[in-house]
């Protein structure tokens, strides 16, 4: 792995641990000589992880849709900034630039981004590792939902391993480094194996 895409809230959230863990993840990325790919903002947890990476001498690559957001939230000190036309192009570019994905706490946008890369992994568009940094139990309800969807037959058992969830940035990065994608198989319960 050379680059990790980090999805994160554009707000810092109310729990100070969210920002602390964003910074800890940034430090761990630099320690491992991993480049950061992210949404290009200087705000919220996105800005925290990028600023930590840059201040520690690492590389931070942003991908931002031109004109979609107010100019002042675009991080002007990045190693690289890729401007794209749409959110769809943004996510595709972030995927192309990255060797793996981590979600810090965030809202609708973060959920959408992480579920899209999980869906892409499920159907074989990529086989990159996907992780959730479970700060103060933030992603525990989401993992319970995934477990529930698996138990009720909407997520195949073999694909429950598509997402790695850990509360320590170093442990999460170790698990992503050692990740082996689940064996691909028929994900549709109504189709017979051939």
What does this structure look like?
The longest helix is centred in the N-terminal third of the chain and has 16 residues, at 16-31. The protein has 194 residues and is α/β, with parallel strands linked by helices. It has a single domain (3-177), classed as Rossmann fold. 39% of the residues lie in helices and 16% in strands. Strands 4-3-2-1-5-6-7 form a seven-stranded parallel sheet, sandwiched between helices. The mean pLDDT is 92. Helix 4 links the parallel strand 5 (101-103) and strand 6 (130-133). 39% of the residues are buried. The chain is globular. It contains six helices and seven strands; from the N terminus they run βαβαββαβαβαβα.
Put the structure in a nutshell.
This protein has 194 residues and is an alpha/beta fold. The chain is 39% helix and 16% strand. The protein has one domain (3-177): 3-Layer(aba) Sandwich (Rossmann fold).
Q: What do the pLDDT scores average to?
A: 92
Q: Largest sheet, if any? A: 7 strands, parallel
Helix content: 25-40%
The CATH architecture name reads 3-Layer(aba) Sandwich
Q: What string, H for helix and E for strand, traces the elements in order?
A: EHEHEEHEHEHEH
Overall outline: globular
């Amino acid at each position: 792995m050379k680059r990790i895409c980090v999805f994160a809230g554009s707000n810092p959230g109310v729990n100070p641990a969210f920002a602390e863990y964003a910074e800890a993840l940034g430090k761990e990325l630099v320690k491992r000589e991993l480049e950061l790919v992210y949404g290009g903002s200087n705000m919220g947890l996105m800005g925290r992880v990028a600023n930590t990476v840059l201040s520690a001498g690492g590389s931070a690559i942003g991908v931002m849709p031109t004109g979609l957001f107010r100019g002042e939230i675009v991080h002007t000190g990045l190693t690289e900034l890729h401007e794209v036309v749409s959110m769809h192009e943004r996510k595709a570019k972030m995927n192309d630039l990255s060797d793996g994905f981590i979600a810090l706490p965030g809202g609708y946008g973060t959920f959408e981004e992480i579920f899209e890369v999980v869906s892409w992994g499920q159907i074989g568009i990529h086989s990159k590792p996907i992780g959730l940094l479970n700060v103060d139990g933030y992603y525990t309800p989401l993992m319970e939902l995934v477990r529930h969807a698996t138990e009720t037959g909407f997520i195949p058992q073999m694909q429950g391993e598509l997402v790695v969830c850990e509360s320590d940035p170093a442990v999460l990065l170790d698990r992503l480094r050692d990740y082996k994608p689940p064996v691909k198989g028929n994900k549709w319960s109504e189709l017979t194996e051939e």
